[in-house]
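Researcher: Can you fold this with TNX in place?
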Amino acid sequence: MVIGDTTLPLVPYPVQARAGAPVRLTDRARVVAEPALLDEARLLALDLSARTGFGFEIVADPDPTPGDVALRRLGSTPGDAYHLTTADGVVRIEAPDDAGVFWGTRTLLQLLDHDADGWFFHGAEIEDAPRFAYRGAMLDVARHFFSVRDVCHYIDLVAALKINVLHLHLTDDQGWRLEIEGYPRLTADAARSAAGGDAGGFYTQDDYREIVAYAARRHITVVPEIDTPGHTHAVTVAQPEFTEPTVISDDLRAQSVELGQDLPVHGRPYTGWGVGFSSLKTGDPGTDAFLDDVFRQVAALTPGPWLHFGGDECLGTSAEDFAAFTARAAAAVVGVGKTPIAWHEAGKAAELPPGSIGQYWGFLEPDPAQAEEARAFVAAGGAVVLSPSDAAYLDMKYDEDFPLGLTWANGPTSVRASYEWDPATVIAGVSDADILGIEAPLWTETVRTIADVETMALPRLAGIADIAWSPRDADTRTWESVRGRIARLAPAWHAGSVRFHPSEEIPWTQA
Ligand code: TNX
């Protein structure tokens, strides 16, 4: 077993870490911070209090005394890096910027432990910075709707793993989830439905602002996705004039028989799981104006640099129309001041704005055409986000008998399979310099509640976070190491009543 006295209970594992003298906690422990870091101090104190029951007074700017946690801005290379030490009974977290300090506090929370003598922090000397700038989790709020509260809860869970991007899949065939001024039917009519006939829902623009602000406080950037030109059946319910007739393929017919689901009917809510039957009217100036309006409002609500315009599974759109449409959609995203992100199919666009990001969702062994589409983004001066569906898709079943999830991506995805891959070896010619980061999408056809979200995401997202952060050649970048470290996350999950999947692949008893 790799976990021994020297491996710290951390996921993701830091670049450099040495065990040190532990720091005992008492109910007099304080978080001391310079004024600019009081927000990070407050969030840390809240989490520490929730676990230990201690008060954790927050103090601006004094000298730390033994037992305190001290937060300080120090150093010169921003970008999530931080330094953590436990010398002389004081925990010190130092980083060039508040993001780095925040990630350091997430590390510290994993060092919290207790024994017969009470609460303590494992001693450590850590020098840390991430491998990838973009460490993403996606939540599909279109197939099933999740409340602001649920989304914020997910933000806390992913922040603990140093995930720094939350991609929200806001629109799909089954529902439109964001208020857009000037198009009241998108929320009055197209938001009512969800997969499986469950209740729909939507975010008002204020709700969305609340999510963005909650994420931002945790140094997480929200990437909104408006999926186009396919996955737009919900638009037929609200604004049919911007949509093409529904295309029913033999596959869709067979699938709907197998699953006992109704076929989609243009203009009526769809509650099945089929894909590829809907399309916006792509050559149409009215559609372009509508999308411009939507993108403009979404961009205005979103402080982050990216806007995702979808581009996946457009079986209802001809190749030529798709190429022309995606080029216009990408240009429209640039026009509202954002960097376009799209699923890799959009690499077929007639023209990609420089710097566009392609999100690869093919298998670990790519189909050559899909790999080519992903490389088109790099060729256009952009980069790739990797979400290989047979490793990073959190909606795949853990095993054949798992009650939730799908299996289309090469069958079930075990915790081990979700961990044992490397971003730099997925697409030939696409290495770290071309990779903005990785993302674990959670599609929600079968995922109906926040408990289901927790079960599908954890523990797999922990391993994926380790891939996103830790150096590729680290000694701890092994299944034996990560499974032992994941086991040690369980006490915090139990304490927070997180309904993670107690997979037999993880030696939980070590916790
Ligand atoms: C494929 S991946 C989709 C989604 C489905 C998902 C289910 C991608 C870009 N599209 O529409 O929800 O599979 O696993």
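Model: Folded with TNX in place. The longest helix spans residues 285-301.
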